[in-house]
Amino acid sequence: MDIQLRPPPIGTAHAPIKITGSGTLEMEDDGLHITGFAIAGSTGRTLGIVLGILTFSVVVTLMTSIFDLATRTSSVIAIAAAAPVFLAATRKAAKEGERVSQVFPWANVKKVTWDSGSECLVVVIKGMDPKGGLFILQPQDSELQRELEAKVA
């Protein structure tokens, strides 16, 4: 089946496995077969996140020291200033590198869950390298999610 892999730049509950872009998913007897692309140079997304944090810090410092605003007020203004930068970086798709194929044995597929932040189905892989979460762009409670949950159960 054709899928779209979209790992976030920063994992929250699960570190993202660095496979991105258009790919395929096949459920075979020996495990989950995934093809996609390796992430090529995540500098742009990382730089955007650093700029968002830096923007927040600079705005808080300016608001509290120069304009003598309370810390809470300056923090709210700083969040408003940094949020667009941070959101743009986290929503930006990773650059595709070389084509990769990976087999994840069923014994290593531990859980299937939904991540509302990235709006992706997350297949949690443990006990092998790479480990973490495969982020697959799918609607919540999709047929693919139900099939994978049945295989993992």
Count of DSSP strands: 7
What would the average pLDDT be, to the nearest integer? Answer: 85
CATH topology assignment of the largest domain = PH-domain like
How much of the sequence lies in strands comes to 25-35%
* Estimated structural class: alpha+beta
CATH first level of the largest domain: Mainly Beta
* CATH architecture identity of the largest domain: Roll
Q: Count every helix, treating DSSP H or I runs of 4 or more residues as helices.
A: 3
Main beta sheet strand tally, sense and closure: 4 strands, antiparallel
CA(first)-CA(last) distance: 21 Å
Rounded to the nearest angstrom, the radius of gyration is 19 Å
**Helical proportion?**
25-40%
Number of domains: 2
Basic shape:
elongated
Low-pLDDT regions: none
Q: Biggest sheet: strands side by side, in what order?
A: 1-2-3-4
String of helices and strands: EEEHHEEEEH
Quick take:
The chain is of the alpha+beta class and 153 residues long.
Structure in words:
The protein has 153 residues and is an alpha+beta fold. The chain folds into two domains: 2-41 and 96-152, PH-domain like, CATH 2.30.29; 43-91, no CATH class. It is built from three helices and seven strands, in the order E-E-E-H-H-E-E-E-E-H. It has helices spanning 43-65, 71-91, 143-152; strands spanning 2-5, 19-28, 31-39, 96-104, 109-115, 120-125, 132-137. It has a four-stranded antiparallel sheet, with no helix packed on it. The chain has a three-stranded antiparallel sheet with strand order 5-6-7. The protein is elongated. It starts with a strand and ends with a helix. The model has no long low-confidence stretch (mean pLDDT 85).
